[in-house]
Amino acid sequence: MVDDHRAVADAMAFAVDRADGLECAGVAYSAASALQLVHRGSPDAVLMDVRLGADDGIALTAELTARLPDLRVVVLTAHLDLGLLDRAADAGACALLPKDGSWEDVVTAIQSASRDGFHVHPQLLRGFVGSQPRHGMPPVDLTSREQEVLRLLAEGRDASEIARTLGISVLTGRSHIKSVLAKLGAHSQLAAVVTASRLGLVSLRGTG
């Protein structure tokens, strides 16, 4: 849990500890203490405030995911917009949520993160609907199987759910996901879906 407001961070830690299957491994109130805590505690996921006083939560996310590629980071922000989603995705975050959202949204995002999935708030999904594809980007040549995998990623499915839906092994599903990410030039599933939506390859119409 990383937030420079102690009361907020402690309240979130309490909420996480009350959720089934989750335990807060520690609370950090600055970027420096977060780096030490993550290195010492090896958590599965980090709940990150986008603003950390003089520090930048997105920059810290990028540093953490560069050091620990398997670490899942859920970013919280008081100012939700699509530009921030792009930055969070590029930094390797697996989710972006409004800070004033429900505890249920936060818990769902953390649980999804721990399963190698990702979670985007419905407000952001609605913002994507009807958006124009990004021009000037080269076409992406996906196989039919990779297109299926991308569609399921856009629905928020994780590797095990994709494997079950397509009748393949989890290992094969992860291999397809890795291939999709490589072809889209993305280093996270969230970044892949952001890029795909900009290219008009997927239509994000979910509600959560």
Description of the molecule:
It is built from ten helices and six strands, in the order ααβββαβαβαβααααα. With 208 residues, the protein is an alpha/beta fold. α5 (103-114) links the parallel β5 (95-98) and β6. α7 (144-154) crosses α9 (170-184) and α8 packs across α9. 37% of the residues are buried.
Total tally of structural domains: 2
> By CATH's scheme, which homologous superfamily of the largest domain applies?
Response regulator
- Please provide the count of β strands: 6
Give helix and strand order, one letter per element, not per position: HHEEEHEHEHEHHHHH
Give the fraction of residues assigned to helices: 40-55%
Q: Can you tell me the residue ranges where pLDDT is under 50 for at least 5 consecutive residues?
A: none
**Span between N and C termini?**
22 Å
Strand order of the largest sheet: 1-4-5-6
Number of helices: 10
CATH fold-level topology of the largest domain = Rossmann fold
Average predicted confidence as pLDDT: 83
Shape: globular
CATH class placement of the largest domain: Alpha Beta
Structural class: alpha/beta
* Rg, nearest Å: 17 Å
CATH architecture level-2 label of the largest domain: 3-Layer(aba) Sandwich
Biggest sheet overview:
4 strands, parallel
Estimate the strand proportion.
5-15%
Identify the notable features of this structure and list them briefly.
Arc Repressor Mutant, subunit A, 208 residues, alpha/beta, four-stranded parallel sheet, two-stranded antiparallel sheet
In short:
This protein is of the alpha/beta class. The protein contains ten helices and six strands.
